[in-house]
Queue: 4 jobs
Job 1
Amino acid sequence: MKPAPFEYSAPSSLDEAVETLARHGEAAKVLAGGQSLVPMLNMRLVRPSVLVSLRRLASLDYVAVEDGCTRIGSMTRQRVVEQHPAVRESSPILAEALGLVAHPAIRNLGTIGGSVAHADPAAELPAVLVAMDGTVTLVSTRGRRTLPASEFFCGLMTTAAEPDELIAELGFHRVGRAALASGWAVEEVSRRHGDFALAGVVVALAADSDGCLADARIALFGVEDRPTRRPEAEGALRGTRGEPPAIAEAAALAVRDVDALEDLHASARLRAHLAGVLVKRALERASRKAIRDG
Amino acid sequence: MAEPVRIALRVNGEDRTAVVEPRESLADCLREHLGLTGTHLGCEHGVCGACTVIVNGRTARTCLLLAVEADGSQIITVEGVATGDALHPIQQAFMEEHGLQCGFCTPGFVMTLYQLFRERPEADEAEIREHLGGNLCRCTGYQNIVVAAVKAAARLREARVGQ
């Protein structure tokens, strides 16, 4: 349970970091908070010859909220984001989701960029990013590019980031216009609190002044090989008042044609079943917030 | 081959240095280089919480933190919580309430609670349970650990009022 030997580099600037990555290509791994990568190193599931640590890059540690978009530097610790007053105000769904990530000691070191780069299909943060039409900004010596979250996650622990790129920033966009009342919920089932979810869902709703849903977002996690939106279910909810039949129909649509993972923790059938139950539960809670309390 | 790196740490109020391989965890550095064997390594992949210490005012799992990444940090380990021969109120309560059986997990529990009570002295049983969710006790003595934690929290609050 000790990592194989590697060279360690802790560049003091972003330029130096991307140059180091470009020099080593696939032999290098980026080390952010280490809460996903170090277990994999310890178990020798990955054996990079070079680790490029981002610990000195204070320029990647920030939270900025403007015009309904919350931009967060990739090296910002999950616990900092979870407790950040501006995040709790502008993106409470993010704070709720982070509260379900492992345990406080893990979130103290774990970064938001690291969770997204690791792309575990059962992780909460990638699902929030997908639900909120979020963006991932990558940098390399070749320049900077921003991808929609839906294009960033490609499959099981696989992303669109090239070996010479690192994540600089995540962008979370508000659901619905500023004037709309919003409701959200993150629901998951895990064997123990803090474990990766067997199935989970992120729901975000926005309602107009008549109490009709103007926008609905549903993203499943821990079900398919990446976090995925459920456009049919979202479409079925728009224009409704989130009444029980509308929610039941959306929950059924959300898991129709779901391509659920199967492993020793849960069968595909169990995952699909749990997902349906969780979507219903999350929609009930979110619509109460958006419509009844809104 | 990776070059060893000299790191400087402030551990329990003392300046210490160590020469470590980049792949060494902070837990191994504390135990093997600094002789602080109170920090226990259980699962070595961040699940059990036994190796929890305080790094720069926050709890961290030292099996998931490379020693080189902790260079320059302020660290408190379980060796740093007592005052001379007087146990810390958390340790005292664990002793009185039978909050440990084999004792392997205890340092992690003590350090998790130490930081929780520094941040949230008013933490109630529910909050204590939530925070201890990341620490495993394979003797499964959770009930008495929670009883001890609640008692320690109350004593720490009383001591604060008394000051």
Note: The first strand of chain A starts at residue 7 and ends at 9.
Job 2
Amino acid sequence: MAQLTQFTITGITVGMVYALIGLCFALVWKSSGVANLAIGGLVLIFSWFTYGMVVQIGFPYWIGLPLVIIFALALGWLIERFALRPLIAQPILSLITVTLGIEFLLEGLTVFIWPWMVDALPPVFPPEPFHLGQAVVAQAYIWAAVVSLVLFGLLTAYFKYNKMGIAMRATADDQFAVQACGIPVTRIFSNAWMFACVVAAIAGILISWIGGLTYGLVETGLKSFSVVILGGLDSFIGCIIAGPIIGLAENIGGGYLTPFIWGGLKDIIPYIIIIIVLFIKPYGLFGEVRIERI
Amino acid sequence: MGLPCGTHNYTYAQDMAIMRTKTHWALLIALLVLLFTFPLYGGGYWLGVANLIGITLIAAIGLNILLGYCGQLSIGHAGFIAVGAYTTAVLTNVFHLPFLVGLIAAGFIAGFIGLIFGIPSLRVKGFYLAIATIAAQFIIIWVINHLGITGGFMGIAVPQASIGGFVFDSEAKMFYLIMVIAVLCTFFAKNLARTRIGRAFVAVRDNDLAAEVMGVNLFYYKLLAFFIGCFLAGIAGALLAHWIGFMNTEQFTLSESILYIGMIIIGGLGTALGPIVGVIFIRLLQQVLTTIVLPLVEAAFPALPAGFTSGINPILFGVIIVLFLVLEPRGIAHRWTLFKAAYRLWPFSY
């Protein structure tokens, strides 16, 4: 029983972080219709950038984190301005491939600057774990879940009440109509990328507090595609529900099934979920089913 | 299609012919002679590079049929190549079957695995399919790593290729085996594009709903594209396995899959010339970079950071893919067509 509670809590909290990474995807997809496959690279480079700021340069977190956010904003702007904007109105294939190119570039940059591959961020949370019943949970997990939830709430409120947020939703709905209303669509795209990068940065920092800095962060980014596929590509609420589901499936499934099948099952469960969802309900739980016309 | 001055088509067969003029034929024969005498003057190292280019070309032609003609994005191509490589490795090493059986079985099994992961393409496209194939890549590699019979993380040795009693035991012999298959594949792909199947693929790529209304069976043609694409990937994998002689899954990473997409985009999607140019461009660049440029740079600047050698490759290829998509999305093949047109019309460019 203790084991089950343990798996459940770990699953839900890690799932919240996956949801956050999924959110970063949905942000871009919703506003500009670009499938951002570079998430893995983004999560990786922001985590290592934090390492560079906090460990190598030695800033305390309260200086380091704002610097990371600024870097994320700048990188998001750069990517949108120089890679995505020239490709507006190109086929989706080009848009997907260009993000793959960016992924390549970001991974290369990270290897270039931090070639030793494994490290850890200095802990910010006290090492004493929480005791929930018989389960023992490190504080970093709980905080990760809390931060994810808060960020999710903030973003939802932003999209509901802020003028720019409403404009972003409108852009997702109909780009031409929005342009006709005098909203600068390119600035919306640019904002979406900057936001997405900031969310990716925060998710990256949270996940590296939990699991350390490795190149596995790229796979964490890739795994979170299962979140957006399960939740539905254009749905925030889908992300926040699908994230914990994926986390639970990964931890409970990995925990109980590994003795029966093969090792490493935990890492493969999200991909199996992707295939199953695509077979059964390709637009996900909350995704908008697209009806196409010629 | 512009034809040289004075060349006219009088029959339908003439109009459809790939080789239209005597110059075409002369150039083709010269190219083939040049290609097949390469082992005589190419050194051992460059022969190895040529073999790698040939194998990559076979896989890239498969991806070009799938992605360039039929428009179905696959980011798991390295996974399908791995299926082919391990099929032949297991068949020839564990079951001691002949090489030809392994080669053909590799193609078919990779093709069938491709069919399974291609089934979602019926209901979804674009990004969803990209994700499905990324999932395919990871699932395939995981299964191979844990299957037991494939040698798992330890890798598996693959015997040398042999047909009858003839063993392909040198780079030069492998070169002929690989190049014959690569030339056949190029010919096959070029002709496939001109048949009903090829035109159906293009119709599916350009607008699948319109294609369906016109009577193109989407289910059949999408899966056929997946099968052909993955079949060729399997053949390439089998050749790779017999050429290297040892397989482990580290040769089939997601980066490799992305690089394959990069190759055919740089070459030119949906053209016969594209994969050839793209593969030669990327593979030569890799070789030149790792064997010539990097040692020079390292000798010139001893104080380089430690990550320079391992990091410069992905950085460069990422930049190249992005630049090509932004500046010349139709690839080098398109530039070549433009050049030919300009050359034909020179000096009166209208």
Note: The CA atoms of residues 65 and 198 of chain A lie 11 Å apart.
Job 3
Amino acid sequence: MQELIGALSLASIYVLFALGMSLTWGTIDILNFAHGSIFMFSSFTAYLLLQRAPLPFLVMVLIGIVVGALLSLLIQVLAFEQILKRAKDKRSAEMQILIGGIGIAIVPLSIAQYYTKSTPFGFEGSPFEVTKLTFGNYWITNVQLMTIVLAAVLGVATSLWLRRSRQGLALRAIGVDSEVASIMGVDRRRLALGAMAVSGALAGLAGILLTYSLGAITPESGDTLLVKAFAAIILGGVGSTAGVYAGSFLLAAAETVVLTQTNGLWVDAVSFGLIFLVLLVRPSGLFGRKEVRRT
Amino acid sequence: MHDEVFRGRRRFAVRSMVAAGALIALAACSSGSSGGSSGGGAATGGDTSNLPATIKVVSTNPTTGVVAFAGNAANKGYDLAVKEINEQKFLGNSTIQLEKSDTKSTAATAAQVATTAIGDKSVAALFGSVSSNEAVAQSPLAQKGGVPIIYTQAGSDGVVIGDYTYRATPLMREYYPIIKKFIQEKGYKSIGIIYTQATPTLQNIGGQTLPAIAKELGMTVTGSIGVQGTTQDYAAPISQILGGKPDVVSILLVGAQNPTAMKQLRQAGYTGEVLGNSGASAGNLKPAGADGAGMVWPVDFNYQQTAASSKKFVAAYKAANGAEDPLNYAAEAYDAAWFLAKSIKQAGSADRAKIKDGMAVVAKEKFDGALGSGLIWVDRDLQVPGVVVRWNGEKEDLLYEAAGVSTSTVSPTSSGSSTTGP
């Protein structure tokens, strides 16, 4: 049972992180490999500000969200939009954005590495205490509980917004055919910027929560999560919010089972092997759809 | 006849004076300075007059990436030693020019920077990476390329592989057993171990050395879990290990993994002490705050140790680094640099092969260095007494020092409480 709580908490972090990536990938065709750096740098910025003043938890979360959103917007305007303008077709644009994201990710990483000398940083000066809530023989921390609740709420909210709101419909229309959507009056640029901002905000939120939960992260922590998030999205199906949940929980559960039942060396091998098996049976992922419609 | 005797005595006196003068001149040429603030005595032999004006040495260490905390600290030790060597004119009119290349904590980059340095004929020697993974990639290149390379840390097999490769740090498995005294004093009967698979050193400690110690002391290993280097959340393995209800837990991780594991260990309800390793040093436990207190580990150096040569090094380091306490990585690098300087002096040349021969000669001598007194080389690995420290939540406290090199006999400096040395 305790392992289940741990797996649930881990999966929720994967959800918060992967949700942002899936949102932009499934709607505006941007697979942002700078997402991990945005996650880390949001937390790093909060850490820097915490050195100057004892900031309460909500302020730290707000900093993470704002920094994540701004960083994501900056990358979209300065890099991805420029690539899209110059790319000869959609396919080459996707590849260039992928490569560009990897390159851009190095900038915040290098800044954080330079400042911290790659030593771990955390929020030990924060007045917020990570406390334990015990029930019987089991326990969960307040941060883990918050992460689980937020992942659930934000996931449902994102899914409902995409399906039922006008902007969500417009965003999904861009994902199907951006030119036709534009002809129909959809402001592609504004919606793309909005999607990137939300994506970055989610990454920033995940960064703050994970840093509180783990106690410390390093400038390289975002890279590890990036691979996991990518795997969760593929497993669940690109562009599907339910798929992000399913992929994240399946991945976290597989990791926990392997870690507790075998030598920990096999975690990644078994986890990614499982993904491979699922994709053999359902190439579009658990909740992915075969048809052109990608949202 | 009287004149002949007088002339004979005069010739004898002249010859004696010439011989004495020659002896005096020879002594003046062969003795350099006494060698560093704690770099040990002068190397025997060696004529520094043939050395080039500048001797280029490259430090190939990670200054970014997950092991940067060790690489940066090592470079500070190299900087201090080179500064002293040059200021004291230990190599006569020659100076060592130290360059630094960042290996970025990856084996591929480590091999690349080593290859670049080896290809540069003006480079006399290398200081190899602190990381085992990187060092294993560098050693074959240096050995085959005929370039002397001295490592610190990098405690795995496949690093010291030939006469061009030296390691100025004992293997962790050699000094880790000095923690036996601590375990015995505490009366632990069982242990649960979590260790990272990411480094060969900690794989060995977690998988073999510590279980062997436990067996020797009649302890039961209630659980042992190896985790990957990419693991960030330790709640699951901790829960499993604590399920075995061990008397003591061992966490053998690197860098940021340590504060996370300590926090989650305390959250899981474990309040006892934790057997760790020097990967938790360099302030890596600080983010854990009070939850980090209680981790105990053996290490080859602590700034509070009492050897006179160690204290001299600490004073010099603090003077050069704004009153900062030196880490073991800096002390190891300091001794490594002085070893190289003595080897160059012994060789009387900056030629790579001759330096290699000089190293073999110098390594036969016992010396006092930053890492302690009476240090010896065995099979090109430095042997040191070692100490045991405990993290108190803010800094390391010295618990005790081992009595001497290559012995399990321990001579405690205190009854277990912290000591800052005389």
Note: The two ends of chain A are 35 Å apart (CA to CA).
Job 4
Amino acid sequence: MQVKTNILNLPTQEFVHPGTRACTGCGLAIAYRVGLKALGKDTILIVPPSCLTVLQGLFPVASTKLPCLNVTFASTAAAATGILATLKTQGNDHTTVAAWAGDGGTSDIGLQALSGAAERGDNFIYFCYDNEGYMNTGVQRSGTTPIGAVTANTPFKGKQQQKKDVTAIMAAHKLSYVAACSAAYPLDLYDKIKNCLHLPGTKYFHIHIPCPPGWGYDPRYGIKIGRLAVESGYYDLYEIINGEFRLTAASEKLVEKRKLIPVREYFRAQSRFKILTDEQIADIQKQIDEKWAGYYRKNE
Amino acid sequence: MHIIENGNVAAALGVKLCRANVIAAYPITPQTPLTERLSEYVESGEMKAEYIPVESEHSALAVCIAASSAGARTFTATSANGLLYMHEQVQWASGARLPIVMCVVNRAVGAPWNVWNDQQDSISQRDTGWIQIYCSDHQQIIDTVIKAYWLAEKVSIPIMVCYDGYILSHTYMPFDLPDQEKVDAFLPPFKPEYALNPDQPANLNTVTLPDVRTDIHGELAHGYMEIRYLLQEDLRTTITAAAEAEKRFADIFGRVSDPHIEPYRCDDADFVAVGMGSLTYQLRVCVDALRNEGFRVGVMGVRYYRPFPDEAIAQAMKGKQGIIVFEKALSYGYEGALASDLKSALYEHLAGTGSLPAVQNFIAGIGGREIRTEDLTNTFRAALQSRISKEPLWIGLKL
């Protein structure tokens, strides 16, 4: 039986101090706060350079109450392996090891180490918080930046290539658990973490993270935009437990409702997609409709 | 107990005797047999440790960095491009003050590809804040690994134990295998000041500002520059700490050696050859030959290269007419790094004393080019007549 957490029974204990260095309206601040609640006190964190390095504060002040090892950009998952190996030699089988890396640190420079750790089956949780670009260095394109997004180094034409599907890559490693989440659905993230803690080997979480300065919207609309991505069927919430795929939360409900918000609304709410033409949006809408027709068929 | 084994096995036996907890490695010639042997010890249960077959050298050191931060005694080994691929992590390990021990089985770096021995790989890591020790035979390899753990953990600085690929790694020599009980007496279990622990949360290697900053209690914490200064200061003090390690080692194992330099027939010598690694033992043969010809010559091996034991070296060179530095690496665009360091030490300690020896630099054995003892002797003899060139000269070049 799946646990369903709501805002009333979500634990009140905080592991992220108020007043972090995150930008106003940062989606990561929400996901991190709720994510650490689910991981709990007996956790060791690993963080490569990313927005999270900034969020966590400047020496000697830290904004999290859990032990954290800051590591080099490409070494996140290997560092998790190192901590796990030590815990094993110390006879410690209870502490959770969790890595939190950005999309560049995961889909680009960190992919080799992540694939290596996943192939070895090292028992830790890897979170990729995906704000769809190198936001910490000033909004450059990454492997997970979507097609059509204007960034600091795709300045006029927008990114010409598809978003890299890291979640599918990780699922291909035949992990015990893979999940796609969103900062706009923190309770879905919370429940998924809780549900996978007991599973063996590497667990992979991909979290869609609205980013006000990188995506170009008023900070107060972060949750709304994150929800538009899901309710338009553009970004799906799901989990794959031992190879079994299922949609979760709002995405699961969309299968019953069979009514997607036009993806145009999602694109037009952000300035990064300003160069997308109506034809391009229609083309993306077609792809979304086809993907969802598949979901509907499966559900029949 | 005396055994006959190759240099890589000598290193592996040293790591086993030191009871390393976490070993991570990626294959690269000529290091591979070392960590293969460790995987045998771990898989057979002969050694209680975690052996991680990682997917790159960058990750090998990443595993050691994280494992050491969590309180484990760690080991890795590499060669050539593997070491270069680690470079970012090499800097990280010393900046984070982690007592990792790594064997560098010296090999030429690409391009072009070459798997044979020179020392360009470890020399290119000279400025990374690690202690670098060079070995000349198998006894030194196993003993140095054991001493390295003691020293690294005492000063919280990582150590590279360097030895020549093939010449030492793949050749067999007799050496004394230290007793486990004695090693345990020499090297207590690793107890770091802080290890990652949910009961005492700390954020390690956080972004640190150019200037000092107060913590939440109003106490001043180091800025980046203070942290880096302390690494330099502590590295310099390891010159003394290395002597302490030698003394402790000699007391327990009965083998006495100079921690920094290894002079051979230098006392009355007018000219001294200087080098690092197995080449210095080959130069002993040249010295004996030249002594028979009536030349007063000696050879000094530099064992401890970083931090540079400038004072010990300068004092040993005092009163000499000339120094001939033989190197298997080079700071491209200038000269051998050891020659530069040596000249700097001489200038610092002997300038104005009226006894500043001339220094001639030779580059030899690059990419495994055979160094024939006869050629080495002839070169040595020619350099005794006068300083041949300001530029480093390459021995055996066929151009």
Note: Chain B has a mean pLDDT of 97.
